[in-house]
């Protein structure tokens, strides 16, 4: 039978062999990481990556600022046009659906309402400024309908 010292010795030898294998594997991984280059070139690569990340953050900030500016401009552009044709003289036998009301609005509901009243004798055209889908001038039912987007 093996003595206690022999078992302890065998156990220590096994631990030393295991540690030697582990060290060899670590050295192999480090050599692979460095790839034959010096530690200074690895540091340069890390610093280059850091500079690239800083440049990316700057680009992201600039892009976000530009997108905000463009979003503000787009909101001021013509967003919706609605037109409603109608006969203001219905039941009298005159007119026809030649009259209209048209709303030209941006995304915030600012713009203008144009309306035209057609009769055989004359055509009248009206323009009313609009702010937040409201006008300081009295609106006809047809003009209100195009502002609110109602289809009659």
In terms of DSSP E residues, the strand content is 15-25%
Q: What summary fits the major beta sheet?
A: 4 strands, antiparallel
Helix and strand composition category: alpha+beta
Q: Order of strands across the widest beta sheet?
A: 1-2-3-4
Assembly of the depicted chains:
single chain
Low-confidence segments, given as residue ranges, are none
List how many beta strands DSSP finds.
4
Principal-axes shape call: rod-shaped
Using only C-alpha atoms, the radius of gyration works out to 40 Å
Kindly describe this structure.
- By secondary structure, this protein is an alpha+beta fold.
- 50% of the residues lie in helices and 22% in strands.
- It is rod-shaped and about 125 Å long.
Question: What is the fold's blueprint, element by element?
Answer:
Elements: H1 4-34, H2 39-75, E1 78-86, E2 99-106, E3 111-118, E4 123-130, H3 141-148
Antiparallel strand pairs: 1-2, 2-3, 3-4
Gist of the model:
This protein has helices at residues 4-34, 39-75, 141-148, and strands at 78-86, 99-106, 111-118, 123-130. It is of the alpha+beta class and 152 residues long. A 4-stranded antiparallel sheet has the order 1-2-3-4, covered by helices on one side.
């Amino acid at each position: 039978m093996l003595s206690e010292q022999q078992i302890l010795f065998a156990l220590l030898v096994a631990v030393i062999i295991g540690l030697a294998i582990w060290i060899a594997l670590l050295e192999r991984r480090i050599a692979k990481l460095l790839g034959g280059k010096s530690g200074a070139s690895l540091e340069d690569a890390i610093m280059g990556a850091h500079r690239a990340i800083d440049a990316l953050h700057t680009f992201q900030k600039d892009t976000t600022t530009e997108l905000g500016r463009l979003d503000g401009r787009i909101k001021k552009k013509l967003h919706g046009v609605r037109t409603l044709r109608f006969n203001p003289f219905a039941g009298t036998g005159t007119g026809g659906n030649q009259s209209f009301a048209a709303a030209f609005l941006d995304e915030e509901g600012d713009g203008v309402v144009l309306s035209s009243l057609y009769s055989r004798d004359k055509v009248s055209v009206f323009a009313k400024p609009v702010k937040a889908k409201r006008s300081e001038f009295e609106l006809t039912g047809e003009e209100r309908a195009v502002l609110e987007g109602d289809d009659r």
